[in-house]
């Protein structure tokens, strides 16, 4: 089982109506992106993290590890936004020169970078809230109810599963090669990598054929039908969702919030 799925299945919020979680997650992302406010982004980040970890009873260590994945790319991105080519020294907080090109950071560029940084983290926390509290096939069930094209939903489910199957296969091949000193030198490692890619391609093709044959043997006719759980709509949760979104909008338009 995929590690993210493991976390979703052990979450205490797993049995909450997935449609409500989906609406809450997507609505909060839309509010976060639309309002473009640092205060809102920080509130959303803290709120989603609190609900996912403390309400869902997920290990904090796992959540931090997952949040650190996009953090590296975010830092690299915001640095390029905060530091620009400076045509004049006016308004620069600091500057430095590289090959006779002056680079510097202004107050406006710093605020823009901060907005992007916290907005992106907040959006990621919203997606993690959904994926870490809702098994993937519950999400696919929600998409079906929202009339998303059936082909797209089925491909999404198959691709999601197959990606991690391939990663697991690649990891096993890598371990096998490493145990035989396949990466002891650069030349040998390069050769082993080529063999790994070749073996992975052949394995992927064989697995896809096996999966298709298994589906056909179970009367596959173009539709993948799964048993769906029936959930009761919680008006309390819907009310809380509305209150949270309204609160975020009020915070964004408050004159006391500078950013």
Helices and strands, in N-to-C order? HHHHEEEHHHHH
| Residue-averaged pLDDT | 83
Q: Which stretches are poorly predicted, pLDDT < 50 over at least 5 residues?
A: none
Overall morphology: flat
Q: Percent range for helical residues?
A: over 70%
- Content of β-strand: 5-15%
Strand order of the largest sheet: 1-3-2
Characterize the main sheet.
Answer: 3 strands, antiparallel
Oligomeric state: single chain
How does this structure look, described?
The chain is built from nine helices and three strands; from the N terminus they run ααααβββααααα. By secondary structure, the chain is mainly α. It has a three-stranded antiparallel β-sheet with strand order 1-3-2. β2 (92-98) and β3 (101-106) form a beta hairpin. The longest helix is centred in the last third of the chain and has 32 residues, at 186-217. It is flat and about 70 Å long. The mean pLDDT is 83.
């Amino acid at each position: 089982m995929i590690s993210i799925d493991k976390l979703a299945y052990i979450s205490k919020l797993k049995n909450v109506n997935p449609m409500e979680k989906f609406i809450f997650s997507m609505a909060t992302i839309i509010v976060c992106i639309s309002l473009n406010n640092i205060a809102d982004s920080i509130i959303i980040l803290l709120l989603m993290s609190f609900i996912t970890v403390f309400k869902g009873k997920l290990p904090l260590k796992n959540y931090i590890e997952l949040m650190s994945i996009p953090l590296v790319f975010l830092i690299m991105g915001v640095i390029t936004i905060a530091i620009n080519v400076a045509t004049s020294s006016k308004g620069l907080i600091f500057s430095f020169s590289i090959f006779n090109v002056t680079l510097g950071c202004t107050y406006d560029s710093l605020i823009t970078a901060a907005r992007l940084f916290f907005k992106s983290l907040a959006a990621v926390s919203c997606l993690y809230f959904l994926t870490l509290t809702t098994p993937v096939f519950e999400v696919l069930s929600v998409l079906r109810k929202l009339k998303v094209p059936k082909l797209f939903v089925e491909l999404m489910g198959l691709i999601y599963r197959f990606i991690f199957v391939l990663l697991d296969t690649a990891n096993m091949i890598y371990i096998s090669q490493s145990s035989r000193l396949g990466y002891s030198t650069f030349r040998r490692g390069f050769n082993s990598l080529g063999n790994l890619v070749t073996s992975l391609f052949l394995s992927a093709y064989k697995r896809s054929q096996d999966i298709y044959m298994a589906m056909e043997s179970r009367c596959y006719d173009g539709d993948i039908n799964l048993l769906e759980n029936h959930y009761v709509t919680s008006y309390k949760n819907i009310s809380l969702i509305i209150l949270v979104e309204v609160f975020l909008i009020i915070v964004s338009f408050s004159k006391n919030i500078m950013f």
